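Sample entry (186 residues):
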Amino acid sequence: MTKKTKRTASSGQGPVVKRTSPPAATPSEAQRLAAAILEVLAGVRSPTAAAELLAISLPRYYQLEARALEGLVAALAPRPLGKQPSLEKRLLQLEKELAAARRACARQEALVRLTQRSLGLAALAKPPAAAPTKDGKRRQPRRPTVRALKAAQTLRAQADSPGAGVPEPTSLQPSAPPAGAEESRP
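Predicted structure, serialized as tokens:
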């Protein structure tokens, strides 16, 4: 058997070269490995003699023996009862759930629009998606400033005041103190 080298990254040091022998290329070679491992486990051969017979190093033999025992244990583990779903069926199930969730979302949005219309509220318009800039990034939407929020609150108060047939001309800007007035600061 020929040896292959595999490079792996190590913590804090340069690359380490591990030497591994290739896996069994044919079923007959896998059977030969299994027979040698079983002979060692039965006590017919020593691990050193089995490694020499297989033309591999002793540490590699122990790796193969450990893998063989793991495979034996995994093969003897109880299997789940019943038919197990395949990945394709699970994907189809998730796609159906997604479609149902989208339909439910669209239904809720329609109910919100209907409620807004029945209460006389204006629906919030979605802002158009910003076009990417030259560097390919999208601009972040502007956040409302405190001044804009105060102006919106003033407008709502004017709209909600009873007997507001004709709105009084008021400024949306904060009023300045009268001339000659001093500000008191703590």
